[in-house]
């Protein structure tokens, strides 16, 4: 099993949103969050415009990140998000 932590999850979302919006990853800011009502979410700012993404979007970003950065094909069903002091993703091999 592989575990990635908050910083890498944020990088994954930045790269994913930059690709979708046609901007540089440095133009994207991300704040991860979790609550009982909404689960895992993130607020994303792209060039000053804010939007919220849900857990499915986070998993998609992690899936693409693992392929691009580690050349590993993983599926969303193999990614489990969790949080304690910080957020992490466990990825089954």
Question: What topology emerges from the helices and strands here?
Answer:
Blueprint: E1 2-5, H1 6-21, E2 28-35, E3 39-46, E4 49-54, H2 55-70, E5 79-83, E6 87-91
Helix pairs in contact: 1-2
Name a few traits of the molecule:
three-stranded antiparallel beta sheet, 93 residues, alpha+beta
Descriptive report:
The protein is of the alpha+beta class and 93 residues long. 34% of the residues lie in helices and 39% in strands. It has two helices and six strands, in the order βαβββαββ. It has helices spanning 6-21, 55-70, and strands at 2-5, 28-35, 39-46, 49-54, 79-83, 87-91. Helix 1 packs across helix 2 (55-70). The protein is globular. The N and C termini lie close together (5 Å).
Biggest sheet strand line-up: 1-6-5
Helical/strand content category: alpha+beta
Q: How do the SSEs run, as a string of H and E?
A: EHEEEHEE
Helix content: 25-40%
- Cα(first) to Cα(last) distance is 5 Å
Q: How can the largest sheet be summarized? A: 3 strands, antiparallel
Cα shape: globular
Structure described in brief:
This protein is an alpha+beta fold and 93 residues long. It is 34% helix and 39% strand. It has 2 helices and 6 strands; from the N terminus they run E-H-E-E-E-H-E-E.
